Amino acid sequence: MTTKLTIAPLSGVAGVGFGLSRASVITALGEPQRSFKRSPFSTYAIDIWFDGSMQVSYVGEVPWVEFIELSRGPDVDVLLFDIAVFDRPSGELLDALKARVDWEESENGCSFTCPSMELALRRSCADDALPFESLGVGEKGYYSEYS
How far is CA 90 from CA 9, 82, 124, in A? Predict the structure, then answer.
């Protein structure tokens, strides 16, 4: 059975909303398959679901959702504007997304951000024939504060 993870820009992913407490995320998705700290200085662990296809990052005195990273995974479809993100060449996906909102290129064509929607696409090489490897979805200000 395929799980659909639908992105609602500025709100969240698959019912996991920005500002939602970690406890509420676990109630919604079940216990994470894995958790890890990005560095020894990280306040909170990043929780992982769907065989690594969804990673949730937290901030705050009581941990709440700040950022969600999505990637290709078995039996998972990631949808943005009803477009499957990881099932098509990155050049084709960019064309479809640029028809809806503006994207800014950086890192020699390996990264694209959409500050107005707090989204970022990442690929390890600037090859339009290959799919993107990850999609970051942030709360208001996550990308737009730095663009």
Answer: 19, 16, 11
Rounded Cα distance, 133 and 84, in Å: 13
Burial class (CB in 10 A: 0-12, 13-18, 19+), 114: buried
CB 35 within 8 A of CB 47: yes
Joined tokens for residue 77:
């479809």
Separation between Cα atoms, residue 3 and residue 38, nearest integer Å: 26
- The residue segments making up the domain with residue 122 are 87-146
- The total number of structural domains in the chain stands at 2
Q: Which of 64, 36, 38, 52 is nearest to 134 (CA)?
A: 52
122 strand-pairing partners: 111, 134
| 77 found inside a domain | no
pLDDT digits (tens, 9 = 90+) for 2-39: 999 999 999 999 989 999 999 999 999 999 999 999 99
Q: Which of 71, 101, 120 is the last residue of a domain?
A: 71
